[in-house]
Amino acid sequence: MTIESSTQSSVATAVAPEQQWQKDAELVADVLARRQDADIRLARRFDAIAGPLVRKLMREPDAQMDLYQDGFETVLTRVRSGALREPARLAGYISRTVRYKFYETLRARDRFPTPLENIEPLMDEHAPSPQCSLERQQMRDAVIEGIAALKVARDRALLTRLYLCEEDKQAVCDALELTPRHFDRVSFRGRSRLADAVREQHPEFAR
User: CA-to-CA distance for 200 and 176, rounded, in angstroms?
Assistant: First the structure.
């Protein structure tokens, strides 16, 4: 299955959240039981959720495919091992896995690493489902895209820590070797650039 196929797989009859959660729980159970075609159905479910998200986060086709495949391998392995504590929250787990893998890509690209332990809570299966916080998640996606589009590595590192990892000012200063005064200047410029990037990519969030 390719990323492009998600355009077709995502066009499906809408179902109530409770019905979809039940279907996802049954899908996870089928994968655990190694039932025929269960992995294929999981791939389709992953594609419907991850495909559009991957295209938002990555612009280059090769990078999209790497993120897509890495995310699916992680989800398949976790589901097969029985590590998903709330099978009904499969959709949220898929979404968080793709974001987590994206953060890993940013850390590898930037010379200022983001500590892994601060990102891992985003993988928690107990986090609210997308259906419960759609607007907040859409804004978060827009911020992620905006940060990724910034050309200055220090801006990306600082804003990732500040907004995605929710580190406090002192922790960011220590990690990036900034004085508090320098932090204020760098963060002001970074936030301004981020706001411009978000407005350019998502006019619906402009105020």
Answer: 28
